[in-house]
Structures are given as structure tokens and as C-alpha cells.
Design goal:
6-stranded antiparallel beta sheet, 5 helices, Nuclear Transport Factor 2, Chain: A, alpha+beta, 229 residues
Length: 229
């Protein structure tokens, strides 16, 4: 079931889901914390310094998404993929997200298989965004200047995708700092639906059925389908 939970919210060719994560039933983040490390809770923070640093990669991601939307389907899929990939790499901690999604079995995989899975996951992630953000009709991103602090030091960056009509859809990015760099470790659609939780359920089903090779084959197949080739 590929992103169908959000299909009713499509705005002029733009799927209003967090296209990063694999399909599955919507999973609300528990009130005590999101699967990645905490649900939005605690105080709102504003001003310079740490409160603003998490905004930088998301602002760049939003700009890159608008670029590929404006390019639209008249531009080859691979060109739009190449346009977006650097912003996705900067915005998301994909290795962390994949480790959390695979679970304890990750450490049992060989380094070669881990690297292959990460490459397949990255390609699928970028392809998902390119496929979903494929047209432009006056939409814009509203990135709030205040972040929401979580008890474990993570910050939630709040964004809205706003249509020309004024209809909007909220996507919150759970940001974690490592080595002075902030990256997203989860996306909360409508402020509460954790895409990592959705993905974790989907991935672990595949792992239980056919192991890491089944997961990799699924990611590769979905990427080919999304890129139409």
C-alpha cells in the first residue's frame, strides 16, 4: 500500500505525505516519545544558535523540492533525482533511520550487505520524493522560525506545505545533532504520524519473510517503479 494513507490530501500533483518513508498503516507517535527518540513535546525555542541550526538543512530541502517541482515531468527523472539528492543527504540521517528501521538484526549483517542496503534505501528515498513532488502550481513551504525542544536534546522543525488555495498540510522533522551537524531522524505527518514507525513495521515484515535480501530487492523494485524504468 504505497502512501495511500495520504492520497486523499494530494494538492495539484503534490502528495502531502512525508515521501521519505516506506508504505504501511499510519502509526501515531506515542505521547511519551516518537519511535526515533521522542515525539514533539516540551517547550518551544527561538532565537539564534542551537534553536536555528536545525532549520538550515530543512530550509535547503524545501528549496530543492520547489526546484524539482518547477522542473516538473518535462525534466527527465534522473535529472530531478540528481538535483534533489544532495539536499536529501544533508537533511536526513539515512544510516540512522535505516538502522532503527531494521532493528537489532542490523548488527548481524555483514558490512558489505549493510552498505548495499544503505545505497538501496538512499536511492528509494530520493526517488520517492522525486515521484511525489512532481509539479508546481503556486505551492510554497512555510518553515516556522521556532523549533520545539525535546527532553533528549532533539529539536522539532515545523513546516507546512501550503497550496495556492491556502490549504495546508503539516510535516514536522525530528532533528538530532551529531558532531555539530543537525539531521532529521523522523518525519511526523500532521504533527503525529511517525513515518519511521510505519517504515519499521514494513521493513521488519520483509525481513521476517525473506531476510535482508528480500528487503533490498523490495527497495530496488520500488525505486525502478518510481523512476518508471
Amino acid at each position: 500500500m504505497e502512501f495511500s494513507v495520504f492520497s486523499r490530501r494530494r494538492m495539484v500533483g503534490l502528495t502531502l505525505a512525508a515521501a521519505l518513508f516506506a508504505a504501511g498503516p499510519a502509526v501515531a507517535a506515542p505521547s511519551g516519545g516518537a519511535p526515533s527518540g521522542g515525539a514533539p513535546s516540551g517547550g518551544t525555542t527561538s532565537g539564534a544558535g542551537v534553536a536555528q541550526a536545525p532549520l538550515v538543512p530543512i530550509r535547503a530541502l524545501d528549496a530543492a523540492l520547489l526546484d524539482i517541482m518547477r522542473a516538473g515531468k518535462t525534466a527527465p527523472f534522473q535529472k530531478r533525482f540528481d538535483m534533489l539528492a544532495p539536499a536529501v543527504d544533508r537533511a536526513f540521517d539515512l544510516p540512522h533511520i535505516l538502522r532503527v528501521s531494521v532493528g537489532p538484526g542490523w548488527s548481524e549483517l555483514s558490512p558489505t550487505l549493510q552498505a548495499s542496503l544503505l545505497d538501496a534505501f538512499r536511492r528509494y528515498t530520493v526517488a520517492s520524493y522525486v515521484d511525489n513532488f512532481d509539479s508546481f502550481d503556486g505551492q510554497h513551504f512555510d518553515l516556522q522560525s521556532d523549533t520545539r525542544a525535546l527532553p533528549d536534546g532533539e529539536q522539532v522543525v515545523i513546516t507546512r506545505i501550503v497550496a495556492r488555495s491556502g490549504e495546508s498540510h503539516q510535516l514536522d522533522y525530528v532533528m538530532r545533532e551529531h558532531g555539530g551537524v543537525w539531521k532529521a531522524v523522523d518525519v511526523l505527518a500532521d504533527g503525529s504520524i511517525s513515518r519511521v514507525a510505519v517504515q519499521r513495521s514494513d521493513f521488519r515484515h520483509l525481513l521476517n519473510e525473506g531476510g535482508a535480501t528480500a528487503l533490498m530487492a523490495s527497495l530496488q523494485r520500488k525505486t525502478r517503479d518510481l523512476s518508471h524504468g
